[in-house]
C-alpha cells in the first residue's frame, strides 16, 4: 500500500539549494551522483507540489506510456 507523508521540512539557501536529510537519502537509497527529475503539479496555474523521481524510473514510466503510442503511429 502506498502513502504520502511529510518526511521533513527543508530550507532553501540563497543559491536556491536544498539539502535532503541523511535519513531520507539513506531510506530512498539516494547516492552522490544520482540523477533525480523534479516533477511539478499545478493547480489553478500555480505549482502546488514538487516530487523527486529517479531518472531511470522516469524513463521506464515514459517508455511504458509512450511506447505503445509510438508503435501505433508507426503501424499506420
Automatic annotation (TrEMBL):
The keyword 4Fe-4S does not apply. GO terms for molecular function: DNA binding. Residues 7-57 form the SpoVT-AbrB domain. It comes from the Archaea. Keywords: DNA-binding. It holds the Pfam family MazE_antitoxin. The keyword DNA-binding applies. Transmembrane segments: none annotated. NCBIfam families: lp_hng_hel_AbrB (TIGR01439), near_HgcAB (NF040962). This is AbrB/MazE/SpoVT family DNA-binding domain-containing protein. It comes from Methanothrix soehngenii. The lineage of its organism: Archaea, Methanobacteriati, Methanobacteriota, Stenosarchaea group, Methanomicrobia.
